[in-house]
Every structure is written in C-alpha cells, then in structure tokens.
Amino acid sequence: MASKEKDHVVGIDIGGQTCKLGVVDARGDVLAQKVIKTSSDPSAEVVIAELAEAVRSLVAEAGMEGRIRGIGVGAPNGNYYTGTIAFAPNLSWASHGSVDFAKMLSAAVGGIPVSLTNDANAAAVGEMTYGVAKGMKHFIMITLGTGVGSGIVINGDVVYGSDGFAGELGHTCAVRYNGRPCGCGKTGCLEAYCSAIGVARTAREWLELTDEPSSLRSVPEITSKDVYEAAVHGDALARKVFEYTGKILGQKLADFVEFSAPEAIVLFGGLARAKEFLYEPTLKAMNENVLPLWRDKVKILFSQLKESDAAILGASALAWEL
Amino acid sequence: MASKEKDHVVGIDIGGQTCKLGVVDARGDVLAQKVIKTSSDPSAEVVIAELAEAVRSLVAEAGMEGRIRGIGVGAPNGNYYTGTIAFAPNLSWASHGSVDFAKMLSAAVGGIPVSLTNDANAAAVGEMTYGVAKGMKHFIMITLGTGVGSGIVINGDVVYGSDGFAGELGHTCAVRYNGRPCGCGKTGCLEAYCSAIGVARTAREWLELTDEPSSLRSVPEITSKDVYEAAVHGDALARKVFEYTGKILGQKLADFVEFSAPEAIVLFGGLARAKEFLYEPTLKAMNENVLPLWRDKVKILFSQLKESDAAILGASALAWEL
C-alpha cells in the first residue's frame, strides 16, 4: 500500500482555562475536536505530555494516523520565531520563564513539526486561510475578547517584527495618556476601553456618574454580556456604551490604517458579537480620522468563522505553512 | 570594447521649491549633483522634459553615459505601485490629477527604468542601503521636516500597503482628538506638533500664554530654527518646547513599536538636527509608553547621511532594486 498523504493538520488553542484541539482538513473542516482543561501543573514537561496524549487520541479518533502534516499552536505570548511561550501570566507552567514549547511538543508527538504564535496572529492566519480575509494580502485582525489582541498581515504575511512580538495594538494608547489603567501596567490602552472588561467598566462608571435610568442598575456584577443584552432590549445607556466603545475603536483603527493601508480590518471575539451596535460608530470614527485618501475605502468586516471552531482553525492554519 | 556595466544610478528628489538630482555609485558616493528650480509650469509634459534634460546633462557631466541602471525618484504623493504622482498640493503640475510620472520620465530618457515613491519611503530605503539602518530588517524612518513623514521597513521591505500609500504616521493622532488643526484637514495629528511648523507654533503659543522670559520674545516671526538657536543659547522656554515636542513624539513612537516591533526608529530631517534637545525626552516617553517587553530595547537613531546628499541618496537607492 502506498504511504498515505500528509493532508491534515492539527490546531491547538491554548487558553488560561482550557485547551482546544482539532484535526482539520484542507478545506477548513474540523473532523474531530476536543476541549481539555488547561493543566495547572507547574511543570511544562507534564503539560506537554498531557497535550501530546490528547493529540494522539484525537488523531486516532479521526482515523488520521500518519496523515498529520503539522501542528499549529496559538498561545498567549507565543513567539513564532523561537517557538517559545514565555512569561504568560495565565499559564502556571509558563508564567515564570521561557518554555521551549514547539520543540518539546514536536518531540513528544514523534517528530510532527510544530509551529507556534500568539492567539491573535493565529486568528489572522485563520481568516486568511479559511475566512473573510481569504485572498487578501493586507488586513488587520483585531480580537475583541477579555483583552484586545491583533494580527497584522502585510503582503500576505503576518508581521512578527524584529523579535516575534509585533502586533500588540491592544496596548496602543486610546482616548488619552494617563487614561484608565490597563492590565499590562500602562494606562490608557485600547484594551482598557474596547475589551469585554472595558465595556463592563464603562457601563459601571456611567451608572455611577449619572442618574440615567437603565435596566443595568438592577444587575449586581455587570459583564459585557449584560450590557449587550440590555442594548438588545433597547436600553439607551447600554447602547451609548457601545457607541462610545465603537468610537474609541474607530479612532485607533484610523491610526492603524495610516500605518499599513490595509484593505480591511477584521473584527473577531466575544465583543464582536455586538456587531449591530459596534459597526456604525466604529466605521464612522475610523472614516472621520483617516486621511481623505482612505475615507470610505477601508472595510470593517466581522469574522464569519463558527465561534466553536475559530480558535482551532486559526491555530491549524499555521501548520499548512510548515 | 565590451559594453560598459550599468553600475550607477540616478536619484531625484522632487520638492515644492527645488528638485535635486545626483549620479550615485554602489558605495553611495554622489559623483555629480545639481539642484534645479521646480518648474511652475502646469503641464507635466514640460516639467518631465526639463527633468529629462537635467538627467542627461548630469550623466554626461559624470561621464556615465550608458552606465545608468535606473532612476529612483522621491516625490510628494509618489506611489510605488503605480509610478504616479497624484494630487500633490505643492506641485503645480501634479496638484489636480494623476501624472503617470515614472512611465513618462522613463520614455523621456530613452527607456532607463524609473522607480518612484514618496520622499519618506525613499529616505528609509536610503538609510537601509547606505545609512544607519544598513543590515536592519525592521525599522521605522521618521522624517521631521516642514511636515512629518515616515517610511516603515518590515522584513527588509518598505511597507506600501494595499494601495501604495502606507506609512502616513505623521497623520496619526497625537496628544488628543480635536487637538491642533493639521494641514491635512484633520486635527491633532503628530505633524501638527512634531514638525518644524509645530515647534514654532508651540513656542508662539507658550509665549502668548505665559509671562516666562525668553529671548524668543524679541523675534518677530518665530521659526523652528529660532527655537533651536535659543535652546542652544540656554533659553529655558525654548528647551521646554523641545522637551514637549520630544515627549509627544516618543509617546507616538511607542504606538508604532507596538505595531511592528522594529529594532530602531531612525530620525531624519531639519528638526532632527536638534538631537541634543530631542533625544532624551523622546526616548524617555517612548520607553514609558511601550509594553515592558520592549522597554529600553528599541533604539532611537539619527540619520548620519550628509544632509546635502541625503535626499538624492534616498531616491537613488530605490533604483538598485530595479
């Protein structure tokens, strides 16, 4: 029998709470997937052995033994150049030093090559390979989740910069210097306003500062999901929170357009589900703040990838380049 | 006799007042150069014929007939992809439409290939070919002149973006939205603060708003050069103007670092001559505003190219890629 073609890849999305794994074919169909609890073991060796075992059983389940071309991994603080995960605050096993992740995982799965980058860069590769950015050579992916991540594509390649860490647009300065404190230690970052946490905070601040009636006043611990649901039900304050958030986002997108002149900005992540409230103010603020030559020319798109598959697809897409 | 090797290039820098031309060898030596008054003829055909004549006579003067590999041109609103100059407010012959400059000039000089980009991108290629960025794959050139221009290099290539106009960092938002009006029609642009015009304006504003003694009070029409000279002579207000300018510049450089993670930022242009007053506050503000992973890692360098040659060298460097 002829040796089987290596025509499938594995995507792994490493998060603070869970790791998602999937076996993916060339069309972007996820043949098998599973979610495992992210190990709290402080030893990277133990964690990688667990992941390797999960990969093996998933590949067997999909009937794809011997047909895996490579493994793509999206991980916080993942570095494409070095294959390491270093000082990732939410990963107990990679929070206090640098873990030679790609090399170790590859060895643990019998030599299948492993490519690694951060989650937002993986999402950008995913959109370019399977999503709304298919065929685009120049776009910027912004992930609006708990934080704000970004992946920048220029000439069809993700921008990694001189050190592998380029594309931290969530930590560019929005609104003003000395603005809100951000989790990164700086103040005024885009992430402090345009993340799920930022939206909830804006709502809480406005409720405190005004007497405006709002259904949110009866919610004890407001989350961005509460704000979204209030907006859906017509709550004026909640809608204004999204207008404000979109305006700040659009202002910064204008800066990014002036940097790399992309065809489109692609928005993804939990907060991007509030498309109906975010799209108009974001687009308006972006167009008001770009040079005339880009006005009404750069598209704002929302990822169409199935939410449950997107992280796996993004990571897996990296592996096609191996 | 064997045909001569095409081992020289011509650089042309097109400005609002003058055009500079030079014949350059592979080491970056300018063998012959001349400055001609920029034609105010509204016909692009006439202007291009004049330029072609100037190229021919300069090449003859250098004794390099038949040895010109290509012509590189830096021009306001020059587009690398299309070879056009379009809607350039300071060029009477290219202010109201698009001029097919590269093609027309090439035809007018007997088919020598012509490559075109804007002046700041040309400066970036010049630094990479002959200057302080030699050997660098990732850096950002910022030209601090009458305006603020920029050329971004990633993986050894200038970033032109989807349309050829990427790298307008002078028009990203500094200080605050709704800040100073900028020549581009927007408000709060970096250029409104960190250009020669911006420095002069800051000085004039401060003189009006305070009673602080300053030698600048006796200067009728303050320019950035006046501010620089006052600073050299110890004027406290003038020095504070540069501190303020450097702080604003450094804050925005931090955003740019978070975009493309360059090895260095290279500063060039008339205002960059105030290095002794700009360097410290710029570096300090950049380091205070980047993520910890880049703190004290990204260099700020000043162009070392001979001022009189720099524009020609930058443009000429483009031609080596032809």
Describe what you observe in this structure:
The structure is a homodimer of 322-residue chains. Chain A has helices at residues 44-61, 101-108, 119-130, 191-194, 196-209, 224-232, 236-260, 275-289, 307-319, and strands spanning 8-14, 18-25, 30-37, 68-74, 85-86, 98-99, 114-117, 139-144, 148-154, 157-158, 264-268, 299-302. By secondary structure, chain A is an alpha/beta fold. In chain A, strands 3-2-1-4-7 form a five-stranded mixed sheet, with helices on both faces. Chain A has a five-stranded mixed sheet with strand order 10-9-8-11-12, sandwiched between helices. In chain A, helix 8 (275-289) links the parallel strand 11 and strand 12 (299-302). The radius of gyration of chain A is 20 Å and the shape is globular. The two termini of chain A are 26 Å apart. Chain A binds chain B through residues 137-138, 152, 154-155, 157, 159-169, 171-173, 176-177, 184-186, 251, 254-256, 258-263, 289, 291-294, 297, and chain B through 137-138, 152, 154-155, 157, 159-169, 171-173, 176-177, 184-186, 251, 254-256, 258-263, 289, 291-294, 297.
Briefly say what this structure is.
Two copies of one chain form a homodimer. Chain A has helices at residues 44-61, 101-108, 119-130, 191-194, 196-209, 224-232, 236-260, 275-289, 307-319, and strands spanning 8-14, 18-25, 30-37, 68-74, 85-86, 98-99, 114-117, 139-144, 148-154, 157-158, 264-268, 299-302.
